[in-house]
Amino acid sequence: MSGIVESAGTGAAHQLPDGQGGMGLPEGHAGQNRTVRSALLDAALEVFTERGYTDAGLSEIAARSGIAVGSLFQHYGGKRGLYLALWEEFREEQERRTAATLASERSRGVDDPIALFVAGAGAYLEGAWDNRRLGRLLVEDDGPAGFDALRRQWDRAWVRRNARLLEVDERRRAGRVRVSVLTTVIGGAARELGDCRDETEAREIMDEVCGILIHLSAPPG
């Protein structure tokens, strides 16, 4: 779960069992669905964090949310759906955050690829700190079947986006490796932020990592 993303909206919207999304529903109904989904995700995060994905029980998630188990299945289809929805929520928030930062920097006239990349990295790390509980959960090995492959797929996509942001020619192996290393540095730092004692320590890590990225982003020669 690392990398800088240029634009949001890459994930599909959550679907109801009949294939209908929130669009087209009466406003009150759509709002109620959002409330139910939010309660279920909050409860799922609590239970997954305390017990791990494997040992988490749907009945406990439903009880903590105050939502019936049947409604849980209706909205998410079960435990795997809840976990993937949490991951998508984290991913989309990180995308929005980094995209907004890049847009702000460009509006100020910043056009240097490295400066933009480091600004986006800083925004991503800010999000990792702000959402550290969810971030810690999502880097654990205890997840649903197939999640690791899905995460690797998105990591590769993020590396490609970072390459475009840095204006690196992906056809050159050296360029691909450099961007992959940079993306890995950001991901590792995000994991470290999850274990920070307080914001002061987190800020120290963010500043240190941004300095490292400036150094490593410079093209060779």
From TrEMBL:
TM annotation in the entry: none
SUPFAM superfamilies named among the record's database cross-references: Homeodomain-like (SSF46689)
Annotated InterPro entries: Homeodomain-like_sf, HTH-type_TetR-like_transc_reg, HTH_TetR
Every HTH tetR-type domain range: 34-94
Alphabetical keyword list: DNA-binding, Transcription, Transcription regulation
Molecular function GO labels: DNA-binding transcription factor activity; transcription cis-regulatory region binding
Region (Disordered): 1-31
Top-level division of the source organism's lineage: Bacteria
DNA-binding region coordinates: 57-76
Identification of the protein by name: HTH tetR-type domain-containing protein
Organism annotation: Wenjunlia tyrosinilytica
Taxonomic lineage: Bacteria, Bacillati, Actinomycetota, Actinomycetes, Kitasatosporales
